[in-house]
Amino acid sequence: INLRTVYAFAREMYPKISTEYVQYGTAGFRGKAEFLDSVMFRMGVLATLRSRYRGGAVIGVMITASHNPEPDNGVKLVDPKGEMLDASWESIATDLVNVSDQELEQHVAKIIKDNNIDITSSSHVFVGMDNRYHSPRLLKAVADGVIALKGNVREFGIVTTPMLHFFVVAANTKEAYGKPTEEAYYEKLIGAFESLRNGQLENGNYKNNVVFDGANGVGARKMLQFIKRMNKSLNISVINQGIGPGKINDECGADYVKVQQRPPISMPIVEPFTRCVSVDGDADRVVYFFTNDKGEFQLLDGDRIATLVAGYLMDLVTRSEIDLRLGLVQTAYANGASTDYIVNELKFPVSCVPTGVKHLHHKALEYDIGVYFEANGHGTIVFSDHAKATIATASETKDSAKTLLLLIDLINETVGDAISDMLLVETILNHKGWDVKDWISTYNDLPNRQLKIKVQDRNVIETTNAERDCVKPEGLQTEINKVVSNYKRGRSFVRPSGTEDIVRVYAEAATKEDTENLAYEVGVLVQ
Ligand code: NG1
Ligand code: ZN
């Protein structure tokens, strides 16, 4: 393989047009789409090298900017088991993207040498994209990066982020997970969902209807595909389908609903207490919401989903008379009331880790059954091999264990999957005979508020203790503590965003007014 080709491709087709330093962050590279062509090309190169480094295993490349606005795009790599790119390669990615076109050839040669990569061995890269209008152009750049190194590339077109993760795992584990196709994905999830329903479509307070806000993203398209294949096991009406003038994530979708604490702008009038679901632009996050009979908006976020799932799993494990270690993982953004509920009522072990699913996922793997969710609705459940084997054995005699076995099939363990998570919530509510009133009455959320603060250099803020305490700039935490101590049930923290050029402020307190004031006061300290 002649590395000159890489340089020639880069120079002719994907020249680097910005010298701004970019970093492979919690969600890979993100930015304005017009600056991403060279980044994408180089990520195609890197994915091929990573595949060869991993003995020819399939590596995934997902093109999306998730919940960010339509003009943005981004790219993240998926490792062979469906997990995020290994941390040790994040810096390799960062360096590769920042070298000049002239240095590129030599730099690629250095990566090959440093990592002992056999450049003639076979490689496989799967590429998927969201439905942003610039995604196809960027997908071609990734594919050309693969081709420049004579690798194999398979394009999946428009898919959700969790679908791409599914394809990567399926291809690498062969029969264990099903085929790496869209059809196999639908079959696996719908099959498990319909078996779990077992013909019982309504139960107690549970009604069989939901409104699904697709954020004008790929989640909407895929949900329409689900509906086509489901035997009316759930009546889903899809809004923000991505046809017409609506822009991706614009005044709709999970991030908008969670942060603004209101329904999508385009919300049709529905009966009070109708279950509504919002996903984000690449369908890896999900939140529920409804309007009560006073017309008030009520949110059921990632913390609610986590507590619902954790309680249900614990119940099934107890009834199956098996001994497994269960645990729940949250971040500092988890509502304090949810943590109290988990610790005091569910008596479930909880841990807090820094923001970003890779931290949550990693921690969750320490348990036999690890439930993890970010408050924004990004999360899943992971089962250890020991847990799977124990459940399988118990399922021969116990119905509760049979249910657990089907739940494992319904869950996309590799990464948070909005559609799989939604089907899981629907299953649990159905089994419990619950409507949203029953669900929300388990505990009362503390009022909470997030602010984005523009600062000159967000990295002057450094945190510790799972981002709950600020160590730099010196003295800031003492001042925050002083402010917080004036508020009943007050809690607040600040951290630099990993995906936007801002500092985030989080505040919660006993009343809405206190929360607003606390957020404002802490925001002033940061500015
Ligand atoms: P940053 O920008 O680092 O706060 C945001 C979300 C994360 C995660 C990433 C990746 C919040 C407060 N932060 O990270 O949870 O989803 O984006 O998409 O929601
Ligand atoms: Zn997302």
UniProtKB/TrEMBL annotation:
The active site is at S66 (phosphoserine intermediate). It catalyses: N-acetyl-alpha-D-glucosamine 1-phosphate = N-acetyl-D-glucosamine 6-phosphate. Mg(2+) binds at S66, D280, D282, D284. PANTHER family: PHOSPHOACETYLGLUCOSAMINE MUTASE. Gene3D superfamilies: Alpha-D-Glucose-1,6-Bisphosphate, subunit A, domain 3, Alpha-D-phosphohexomutase, C-terminal domain. Pathway: Nucleotide-sugar biosynthesis; UDP-N-acetyl-alpha-D-glucosamine biosynthesis; N-acetyl-alpha-D-glucosamine 1-phosphate from alpha-D-glucosamine 6-phosphate (route I): step 2/2. Substrate binds at E374, A375, N376, R495, P496, S497, G498, T499, R504. Its cofactor is Mg(2+). It comes from the Eukaryota. Residues 57-90, 107-173 form the Alpha-D-phosphohexomutase alpha/beta/alpha domain. One of its GO terms (biological process) is UDP-N-acetylglucosamine biosynthetic process. The lineage of its organism: Eukaryota, Metazoa, Ecdysozoa, Arthropoda, Hexapoda. GO terms for molecular function: magnesium ion binding; phosphoacetylglucosamine mutase activity. This is Phosphoacetylglucosamine mutase. Its EC number is 5.4.2.3. Keywords: Carbohydrate metabolism, Cell wall biogenesis/degradation, Isomerase, Magnesium, Metal-binding, Phosphoprotein. It comes from Drosophila madeirensis. Residues 181-287, 301-434 form the Phosphoacetylglucosamine mutase AMG1 domain. Belongs to the phosphohexose mutase family.
